[in-house]
Amino acid sequence: MGVDFEKLAQLFNHWAKNYVDLDESDWCSIDGKSIKGTVQNHSKACQNFVSIVSVFAGKRGLVVGMEKFANKQESEIAVVSNLIAALDIKDAVFSLDALHCQKKLAI
Question: pTM above the 0.90 mark?
Answer without folding.
Answer: no
